Amino acid sequence: MTGTGRISATVPFPTAARRQLADPQLRANLRRATRTIRNRRSQVVDEVTDWEALRAAGAAIKDDVLSRLPELLEEFETRATAAGARVHWARDAAEACAVVTGLVRETGTDEVVKVKSMATQEIGLNEALAEAGITAVETDLAELIVQLAGDTPSHILVPAIHYNRRQIRDILTAGMPEIDASQLTDEPAALAEAARRHLRERFLSAKVAISGANFAVADTGSLVVVESEGNGRMCLTLPDTLISVVGVEKIVPTFADLEVFLQLLPRSATGERMNPYTSIWTGVHPGDGPRDVHIVLLDNGRSDTLADEVGRQALRCIRCSACLNVCPVYEQVGGHAYGSTYPGPIGAILSPQMTGPDNAANRTLPYASTLCGACYDVCPVQIDIPQVLVHLRQVGVDARRDRPSLERVALRAASGLMRDRRRYAMALRAARRGAAPLRLLAGSRGTARRLPWPLSAWTASRDAPLPARQTFREWWAVRASDESAQAAGDPVAGDATHEPGEPR
């Protein structure tokens, strides 16, 4: 794990995607799940007559936050501290993991329960706790499935989206020895009940819980978690100590701003009009909830992202995952191909910015898109993901402009040919002669599926059109010749067996 945690891909996207494409069951699972979620979202969004106004309001609030982030963070720290919470600051994943591990050790426990949290996944907290001899138990059903499978999440909202019900049943029976495998069916209610029984004792005995936060309210020092299962509410209220890891961009200025986001988030995320559980807490209250509340404010590349005037809009993200559910690329390859905690279109712009230009694998993520624009259409805070993708591609090209490049050499050679009409004509004739054997293999398609190196880099993922049998200049010369002959009364010009424009 690097200093930025689990947002640094180790394998370039094209290589990782090719592996995932070889799994037809994965694609079937993804297609079924994403279509179900996006259809549900579409229905509940259509009910809201001012949806576009809500999107614009959400974007405006987030842009206001980004324009004065230091000021709002300081206000949040002051309010939260006054309410009895302890606020910690972490520059990167390593610092955040060290802070949380130290806080857990102070309690003397060796097991913690966790609320689903992208921030803790981002920093690799579970692995850091395990190295310190502390077991982290995921209590969200999908996160628990992934944890028992020894896997990593592949979706922001539905971490186990790449599994079907039969696979989930097998995972639960293998990971929960107390379950009678012969009695457990693959019905969702039965699977949920099995997980509930497995977790109940851990909820009641846990001394420490760890969460993230969907929002942090600056003017009250409050944190907000929305969820659908109730496991979050158990973790946030029963243990003595609560530790929340919160990205600095999760700030909203006022409590009233939640009105906008608590309409946008559930509809965009799960296709619900409101979340079944919305938990809001502020500091410590004697006799009610945790006695020790800690908040770890996490940067981990967010300041670098904020510095980019085009790319900073990625920090508006409220982690709804609507962009994943409409993305044609994600639907085919799933989240693991992105190699980061943040998959899909938002991950393709967020991860490269957070890890910086030196991460070679993350540099390929801005190309993991067709630029169809569906992600922008559904984003509840109007992040123009296609614009940022193109911007990051340009940034990547500019960063490597002075380095040797086969592509640059090829383009300079092409430029030299095209500057001279005779050289260009000779090159076209040579290409046509060289393509003759390939034309026989291509048949009626007129395209080559495999070319020798270095052109194989193109045909590895797409067909290459073969040179035309006749250039425009040649066609024009024959046409002019035919017209001259016809004007002179040459009978050959009117030969019915001769196709117009075809060289004799």
Automatic annotation (TrEMBL):
<dbReference type="InterPro" id="IPR004452">
    <property type="entry name" value="LutB/LldF"/>
</dbReference>
<keyword id="KW-0004">4Fe-4S</keyword>
<dbReference type="GO" id="GO:0051539">
    <property type="term" value="F:4 iron, 4 sulfur cluster binding"/>
</dbReference>
<dbReference type="GO" id="GO:0046872">
    <property type="term" value="F:metal ion binding"/>
</dbReference>
<dbReference type="InterPro" id="IPR037171">
    <property type="entry name" value="NagB/RpiA_transferase-like"/>
</dbReference>
<keyword id="KW-0479">Metal-binding</keyword>
<protein>
    <submittedName>
        <fullName>Iron-sulfur cluster-binding protein</fullName>
    </submittedName>
</protein>
<feature type="domain" description="LUD">
    <location>
        <begin position="73"/>
        <end position="297"/>
    </location>
</feature>
<dbReference type="InterPro" id="IPR009051">
    <property type="entry name" value="Helical_ferredxn"/>
</dbReference>
<dbReference type="InterPro" id="IPR017900">
    <property type="entry name" value="4Fe4S_Fe_S_CS"/>
</dbReference>
<dbReference type="InterPro" id="IPR017896">
    <property type="entry name" value="4Fe4S_Fe-S-bd"/>
</dbReference>
<feature type="region of interest" description="Disordered">
    <location>
        <begin position="482"/>
        <end position="504"/>
    </location>
</feature>
<dbReference type="Pfam" id="PF02589">
    <property type="entry name" value="LUD_dom"/>
</dbReference>
<feature type="domain" description="Lactate utilization protein B C-terminal">
    <location>
        <begin position="401"/>
        <end position="479"/>
    </location>
</feature>
<dbReference type="InterPro" id="IPR024185">
    <property type="entry name" value="FTHF_cligase-like_sf"/>
</dbReference>
<keyword id="KW-0411">Iron-sulfur</keyword>
<dbReference type="GO" id="GO:0006089">
    <property type="term" value="P:lactate metabolic process"/>
</dbReference>
<dbReference type="InterPro" id="IPR024569">
    <property type="entry name" value="LutB_C"/>
</dbReference>
<keyword id="KW-0249">Electron transport</keyword>
<dbReference type="Pfam" id="PF11870">
    <property type="entry name" value="LutB_C"/>
</dbReference>
<feature type="domain" description="4Fe-4S ferredoxin-type">
    <location>
        <begin position="314"/>
        <end position="383"/>
    </location>
</feature>
<dbReference type="Pfam" id="PF13183">
    <property type="entry name" value="Fer4_8"/>
</dbReference>
<keyword id="KW-0677">Repeat</keyword>
<keyword id="KW-0813">Transport</keyword>
<dbReference type="InterPro" id="IPR003741">
    <property type="entry name" value="LUD_dom"/>
</dbReference>
<keyword id="KW-0408">Iron</keyword>
